[in-house]
């Protein structure tokens, strides 16, 4: 089954690339706006041989990784504290529901005002967007704790942090890993968006330069790079999720299928 899925995926990708080559050459779309796949591939190879490209990629990955790490750590810590401290969940519910829907891009003027085009501007947007993905998943995971297991732990005299470790955390971990996977994707989107709009160093800024200089094949090549980067991050996050949850029924069932 996996071999068939891989073959179908490869066939679909090949058909997409062939379509991208044929459409501009047949005159259906002007190649000034949408160059053939072969020209994009040449521009992609040129990017890979350019040292400035790898520097920009490193800047993007730095902002992504730092922002994701901060968001994951803060989301888990705040989610657990809010859940285990009596009445704190109710006291913070309205604040969370007010702040969570605010688009991160709306904070771009604030980020520029505070930090200009520095890395901290990117981190502000990345952390803000990714934090809510983690926090909400942790809160849902804690709510899913079996009350019987919680009461049993209490009856055996387990303290608060012992219950967090042995009861709450195993139940919430699948939600946490889902939050990490979602936050990883959101962090990449916001990192590139911040670079594109603010001008912070990275792939986004390089895309903006390609746009203003009318380097269309290079523009599409950089867009392909961001897509491949997102794909690799998603695959990596799913791999970590499967390893961390190898004991969980959902992953065991998935592997069995």
Please describe what this structure looks like.
By secondary structure, this protein is mainly α. Helix content is 82%, strand content 0%. It contains 11 helices and no strands. Helix 2 (37-48) packs across helix 10, helix 5 crosses helix 6 (119-143) and helix 8 packs antiparallel against helix 10. It starts with a helix and ends with a helix. The model has no long low-confidence stretch (mean pLDDT 86).
User: Helical segment tally?
Assistant: 11
Structural class: mainly alpha
* General form: globular
State the share of residues found in helices, binned by percent.
over 70%
For the largest beta-sheet, the strand count, sense and barrel status come to:
none
Radius of gyration equals 22 Å
Mean pLDDT across all amino acids: 86
Number of strands: 0
The low-pLDDT segments are none
What is this structure, in a nutshell?
With 257 residues, this protein is mainly α.
Quickly list its features:
mainly alpha; 257 residues; 82% helix; 0% strand
What's the arrangement of secondary structure elements?
Blueprint (H helix, E strand, L loop, with lengths): L1 H24 L11 H12 L2 H34 L3 H12 L8 H8 L3 H25 L3 H9 L4 H39 L4 H10 L3 H29 L4 H8 L1
Helix pairs in contact: 2-10, 3-6, 3-8, 3-9, 5-6, 6-8, 8-9, 8-10, 9-10
